[in-house]
Fold each of these.
Amino acid sequence: VLSHNLCTVLNVPHDPVALEEHFRDDDEGPVSNQGYMPYLNKFILEKVQGNFDKVEFNRMCWTLCAKKNLSKSPLQISDEDAFKVWVIFNFLSEDKYPLIIVPEEIEYLLKKLTEAMGAGWQQEQFDHYKIALNTSREGLSAWELIDLIGSGHFSKGMDRQTVSMAINEVFNELILDVLKQGYMLKKGHKRKNWTERWFVLKPNIISYYVSEDLKDKKGDIILDGNCCVEALPDKDGKKCLFLIKCLDKSFEISASDKKKKQEWIQAIQTTVSLLRAGSPPPHKEARQKRKELRQKLLAEQEELERQMKELQTANENKQKELETVRKQLEAAAARAAEEEKKRLQTQVELQDRFSLELEREKMVRQKMEEQVAQKSSELEQYLQRVRELEEMYKQLQEALEVEKQARQDEETVRKLQARLLEEESAKRAELEKWHLQQQQTIQMTEAEKQELENQRMIKERALQVAMQQLEQLELERKEALEQYEEVKKKLETAANNTKSWKDKVAHHEGLIRLIEPGSKNPHLITNWGPAAFTEAELEQRQKSWKGKKSTSE
């Protein structure tokens, strides 16, 4: 039944044999949409020539689907109006399944309906509705569009008849390609009488009927690029006249007023201009432009999203690079802190080492001072003993004093020379040590050099002082050598003087004797070096002195 009705509406011959042959081996029950589509495409749609009534075809499709999908809630529009809205939806919907009408086309349709109803367009109200719609979906289905118009949300204050007339006007314009319609008077070609007719202007034809119900058609005016329209002066008691000239005949028409006359002339001229240019009707051209604009905006939006994603990816990569650089900087800072810590630790160790060395030098200096004090004490003791001997040996005082003084001076010069040599070697070692420390200090980092600059200056000053002391010691050593030479000469003179006293003191059993090579017995060691006699000789002399002292008493 469906195939037969489709063939009837589309003016295609029905072939029952082909239908039976196509579904002969199908024993699986009812045919699905996918199962019926191959037959529909091959045996029906491919044979369509375009000479069928599209309104009747739409009405058949409406009959098939309306009962199942149309809302059961009461609407403010009739079923006929709902059918016309459904057909308008099919014209304005997007070319993809499932079919939806986007908000831009919804706004276009509602504006056309509002204009047809003679009401004002509420843009703010539609903007609120559009925002709510965009948050949930991309558009509306046919049945949702019917519910929207039938609910009266955008036609408040309008009665059903006004809404129905507006839907019919928009349906005629968009679906039936009716550019203009209305009652006018037409002059007959034979009887030359004037008769009122209902004129309908379409893209390539003007049809005129007895009334606006379009049931009794009286004729057509075929339009092409060669047609023209021009205004006529009033005549025969008729006003608002204009003439439509075609190739085969012309038509004189009288409008109801000047406004209608101008509107019809303008509409016909626009239609002829479109025919000459080969352009589609204005509403179809406008729809195509809106569609192309949406596609362009969609492409631009997709390109923008792609660029945003690329920028986001690049930003994420930059963030990763920055994070890597930050980690590297943190690692470098940690290494720098560790190196700074090591440098400070090294500096502290060097300071501790220098402090220990200074303490050691202070201790050595203190020991040397103690030794000097001890030597001074021993010298005092020795001088006391010398004074006792001077009392005992008054006669030999000058000779012994000169000899002893010469020896003392010799020993002093020798020890002084040795001490100066030791101090000189110590100072040289210290200088070399400071020189090595200066070399190590120079090799340190620039930061350490800045911090140790003051210490280096102190050591340089100490080095200068040491150099001055070394030069002073060198001068003292030279003076000591000169003194040694003088003492040596005095010693030789004293030795000569003591020879004359040898015979005089022979009876005293050698209280004093000439300086001769000593015995092999161990000698006494005094603060000034080896003594002139041994321990045994000293004891023997002491016994002799005591015996003589007791004899004299």
Amino acid sequence: MADPPGCCSTCATCLLCPYSCQWITAKKEKRKGLRTTKCDCSWFLFLFCVFLFTLVWLYFAIIILNDFHNFNEFIFRQRKLWLDWSLVLLIATAVLISYSSVLLVLALCLQLCGQPLKLHWVHKILLILTALVVAAAFTGLGIKWAEEWKSARISLQATGPFLHIGTVGGMTLLAWPLASFIYRTRNTGLKVFLLLVYCAAMIALYLAPLGITSPCIMEENQLPPKPALVGHRGAPMLAPENTLMSLQKAVDCDVQIFETDVMVSADGVPFLMHDEELTRTTNVQAVFPERAALNSTAFNWTDLQQLDAGSWFLERRPFPTVQSLSPSDRNETTKQRIPSLGQALEAAKQSNISIMFDLRPENHSDYQNFVNVTLGVILQSGIPLQQVLWLPDGFREDVKQQAPGVQQVYGRKRLKNEKEPVLHVNLPYQDMSSEEIREYRQDNISVNLYVVNQPWLFSVLWCSGVSSVTTNACQVLKEMEHPIWLLPSSTYLMIWIVVDCVSFLVIIWAFVLMK
């Protein structure tokens, strides 16, 4: 195996040292017997597969960031430990992808320099561990968080065209080390096999856009109106969730609907709270340590008013945006208390925004009374009933009779034999395809999807024609005046043809040059 022109002995030695973990000079007499064996080729193939496997996991890790706050809340409910686990995920993923990337680059450079691919046993063990860790991560994702597979499929509508260009570019660059290997090896069968595999992969990539669909491939004059923003528990990145401060911050973000959760105290006062326990968003463990594990509905309104519903936001920092709060906002945060539904309705009425809520817990033995008490507060508040969006399914018919002006929002898709027309639906964004969103829009059915935090996801749903989205990041989505990208089909076709032609010419050039 001869050194190609331009590959100096020092460079070859520097490449061999980290890859083989031993100081081997690149002189021929020092390298007698050091050749790339079939076993070495197998390990290189394994390295390449581990790199791809880790790269796919990196893509998944970035996609699931949209929903990672839910995972943080889940861990807190299970372990009573708050940590932004997305940082742990990203750091671990970055380490794995960096390690496999460096090894792969070293191997490709060694091949171009005509050096033996003698992967050290330490690297072999670490690569096996990397593959096992990533496999475990995918397995855990499939078992505990299966809906994220749907999120990944939706993400391809936003990234598909660019992933295609990137993959074509990466495979095109592989033409150099592949040509180098083919011209050096004497095994004709192996040459033919590698060429056939490479050519088949490139042809598949060149034709891949035939299967790529995205709602954002459209003419600009066909773009639907920007979806309205629904504040998920207010503006939880800017203020403690389900507080009057959070509602006001949502109003400042031009949110049209304040989404919240309502529970009823032991003495019959509806109040805003998401969790069944008070431990995550109040200081109940300090004020009522012996009762901290009780359900929120076990406390009377006087007890609930003693709790601090804001300081936890500064202490735990559920979102990175907490660090950028102004001193005045920090001071206001420490003054927050659990608001009653009546207070929230009054604030919504003054701000002229709608309020949408769930009534929890739906399995409570006194749930019908919860419905009646909540309806009473709504009717007494004086808020225009069309500004109230009712989510709970329990005793919905009673609600229609007592407050016919309240807008009924359904947490399901419409049925074929619907007795009454469904005008509003509220669903996870994974549960509706772009085609279904368009159908509902054509039938004048308002579709709200939750929880949408990332601009790429908001862009896909915007292009699909969704009516509104529930978000934690209203301050980010508010600033978006246009989807991240929008391509006319003719422009995308031109990009596709140009990329494929350039790639083909570069591959031909690589094989001619390496010969």
Amino acid sequence: RSSWLLLAPLLTPPVPVITAPPCSLCPEGAHKFQWIRNLVPEFGISSSHVKVLSSPAEFYELLKVQIKAAKRRVVMASLYLGTGLLEQELVYCLEETLEKSLQAKDSPDLRVSILLDYTRGSRGRKNSRTMLIPLLQRFPEQVRVSLFHTPNLRGLLRLLIPERFNETIGLQHIKVYLFDDNVILSGANLSDLYFTNRQDRYVLLRDSPEIADFFTELVDAIGDVSLQLQQDDTVQMKEGMVHPYQGDKVAYCEIANRRVMEVINSARTRQELLHEKTFHSSQPGSSLSSQQGSQASENLKPEPDTWIYPLIQMKPFGIQIDEMVTETLLTEAERDARIYLTTGYFNLTQAYMDLILGTRAEYRILLASPEVNGFFGAKGVAGAIPAAYVYIEHQFFSEVCYLQQQERVQLQEYSRAGWTFHAKGLWLYLAGSDLPCLTLIGSPNFGYRSVHRDLEAQVAIVTENKALQQQLHQEQEQLYLCSGVVSTSTFEQPNRYVKLWVKLVTPLIKNFF
């Protein structure tokens, strides 16, 4: 039985699914996760094109190097762009690269497209918009800045909810940074904390034109249904586009669904045709191999040993692909398989918790201790958020103990002096294996917001290559090294005291953070 059939009951009408080619097309020894390509495009690449980064500083330096080297396109999707000196340096790099492009003998080819969230990017007098307006003014034909505004923040709600609190309703949360044919997937935003002492995850996919094209088209699609930043700091929709909070909500969401699904399905069709062509051309006696012989084989790319699957989650638009794939991975994980799952904000959906507690695999869940939570020390109500996460963690731990699952499901808290923790994703180790063959990396936190409110994207990376598996294993080990195992005594520490009002309020607001 193919695993993807388990997804059938979850498929909603707004998410059309095209039947995949029969499994007879799969090459010998094909990996066991090819069912994912029934939902999204499958990109086969060489593992030598994948590099796992480990530190914020490395991530920041790579961003600058890639911007300076870009010739055709820079596409950056993030929650927001910060306003400090490090972020200003990124803007200078963009300006310098655009200036070089203008001075080139031929017509300027470089295009810069930036997608941010409207509410987060507009926070404060100095904000993401004011950082980017000089680029729009100087390079109006080459630069596009799109600000996504959730359709769920509208009417009286939009008028009444103050700045910062309005960000709880829904956000553009995707983090993708691409330069020509090089793509960085991460959970990190474009802000100085993420360049210095906020731990996240980052992977570089080098010389991957098909993957770069896909994410360019995805960002363009979201950009088309977003507000466009103008040179005078006003915003307006593209001509003929339904407005996200002034226009009809159903019509807007239908258009957005159609635009995003067009990107996913057209890329999927392209990759299926490429897969078929590659498979048939490599068969003995095929017309290609018999007619062109060794010359054809020289032109063919090396056999892929790594596969990339983009997983998109946009519940406001009726797109739930990431949720479906994640739930199926958790459901299908076999006995003695190990899943290392990490999130900076431990607030799992009920469905994910039920699967973790009710399935057979071993789980090692890494989460932030209160001191490394991104909200630790925040002013006002936000300062109580780490305590709310402690309360949620304690409730889950109590359930694990009640079900006597402590050996199989283990919680670990990341703790590192002077740092905050923002890493998210998972690593899957098959039964009997010391190395992971699959990882999920990107923006989702596995919480209610990621599943229901925000726009999210991550990739599943599946690899048969031992060197890349080792890279992923080292990444996991490095993160978990800075952690301690959670036990009953953890919640008896003074810093784990949760005030009564936080306990009472948390169940009411946990769906907003």
